[in-house]
Design a protein that fits this description.
CATH topology: Neuraminidase
Strand content: 35-45%
Bound molecules: calcium ion
Helix content: under 10%
Oligomer: single chain
Largest sheet: 4 strands, antiparallel
Shape: globular
CATH superfamily: TolB, C-terminal domain
Structural class: mainly beta
Distance between the termini: 34 Å
Number of helices: 2
Strand order of the largest sheet: 1-24-23-22
Radius of gyration: 20 Å
Order of helices and strands: HEEEEEEHEEEEEEEEEEEEEEEEEE
């Protein structure tokens, strides 16, 4: 697990990342303050942005209110322009809090949903043009005539928020394991209209490194399901274990991913087109070997190092978002990672280039049980958070207390 590093080390790290090398040789300072010694950095990194100072103060106190309750494993949550909050239970139910504040269920045909173990109704995203198109995307297990898979489909919702109507299928060939283990699956709707899709490796030894499988990948597709320009065969990045978090860092074009570690090393990764994130659990024939590292540069040459990892043991990290508002003070712009096993949020202040973290702080530890999904909410710098306890689960609104 890497510690916060100096500015010089951040520069060295960016060089290491560009060169696709392990970070193990990076000189790691003990101070979180930026260094003045960046003149020693190599020429290729001389125009890299300097690392920001670590946050000047402690994390603000958090205010938490309940938005939806009485739920059973709400997996994802989105907020529409009219203020409607939509969540979906993994077992197959859409629930909203409408703009009048009323909690109610939406009608939707989920008759072909494959819900088992970790798989079911998972990622939800509003289309970037939702206000005009009323289009919503889901990623979910699907029972098919030729076996089960995980699919990404489009729906429209009526203006009164009474029913979702399925309108198409974008992706129908993401693999799923019998029993649903490591099914992913997160959707990120990019402002440019394309979709990024984080998938799981189906607990299969060869899937993460197999370019003929959509498992253990981050996919990048257009809204008709075709490959985006930077994603041959739809594969944007590979070598992942179980991708359940995707987020754009505000004010940048940096896309971050979180994935679930084995018994250790949940990871936050900065995605680079074509990047291989180094999970290769096929050391023993036909065995899903989870004793391999989450990033294995020896067996996966060029494997990209994580920006942050949990170390040992895993805390189980299903999503990431970013603080976005002056209310967060010196923690504005930090990554926020949710934790199921650790029952907390982890805040990470990042270097400008996104390749390193410069400070870490925990919040809400042990307060709401297992925590799953994170979604930016509104103009007061808050975000929505779903719990993952299996009974009386909630969608919470978390905001920083000012002053
Ligand atoms: Ca990795
Ligand atoms: Ca999210």
């Amino acid at each position: 697990m890497k510690k916060p590093v100096t500015g010089a080390a951040v520069l060295a790290m960016s060089v290491a990342l560009l060169a696709a090398c392990s970070a193990d040789t990076t000189d790691q300072g003990s101070s979180a303050e930026p260094s003045e010694s960046s003149a020693t950095a190599s020429q290729s990194s001389s125009d890299a942005a300097p690392s920001p100072a670590a946050p000047a103060g402690p994390l603000p106190n958090l205010s938490v209110t309940t938005v939806l309750d009485g739920l059973d494993k709400p997996w994802d949550v989105v907020v529409a322009p009219d203020g409607t909050v939509l969540t979906g239970e993994r077992s197959g139910r859409f629930v909203i809090r409408d703009s009048a504040g009323v909690q109610r269920e939406l009608n939707a045909d989920l008759g072909d949903l494959y819900a088992a173990g970790e798989t079911g109704l998972m990622g939800i995203a509003l289309a970037t043009d939702f206000a005009a198109s009323r289009t919503i995307y889901t990623c979910q297990g699907v029972r098919g005539d030729d076996g089960n898979h995980i699919g990404v489909m489009s729906w429209t919702v009526d203006p009164q928020w009474t029913a979702l109507t399925r309108t198409g299928t974008l992706v129908d060939d993401i693999p799923v394991a019998d029993g649903g283990r490591h099914g992913g699956c997160r959707i990120l709707a990019h402002p440019d209209g394309t979709l990024y899709i984080g998938t799981g490796d189906t607990a299969s030894p060869t899937v993460p490194q197999d370019r003929n499988s959509l498992g253990g990948k981050v996919l990048h597709v257009n809204t008709d399901g075709t490959a985006a320009a930077d994603a041959p065969d739809r594969i944007f990045t590979l070598g992942h274990r179980n991708v359940q978090g995707l987020a754009i860092r505000p004010g940048t074009d940096q896309i971050f991913e979180v994935e679930q570690g084995t018994s250790r090393d949940d990871e936050l990764n900065l995605l680079v087109p074509g990047g291989n994130y180094g999970y290769r659990p096929d050391r023993r024939s036909s065995v899903y070997d989870e004793s391999v590292p989450m990033t294995d540069p020896d067996r996966v040459p060029g494997a990209l190092p994580a920006v942050w990892s949990s170390g040992d043991p895993t805390i189980a990290t299903p999503d990431v978002t970013f603080t976005d508002g002056e209310q967060w003070g010196s923690w504005n712009g930090a990554a926020v990672i949710s934790s199921q096993q650790g029952e907390k949020l982890v805040f990470l202040a990042l270097s400008d280039d996104g390749t390193e973290y410069v400070a870490e702080a925990d919040a809400l530890e042990g307060t709401y049980g297992r925590l799953r999904s994170l979604t930016p909410f509104g103009s007061d710098g808050g975000f929505l958070l779903t719990t993952d306890n299996g009974s009386d689960d909630q969608v919470l609104l978390v905001t920083p207390e000012v002053g």
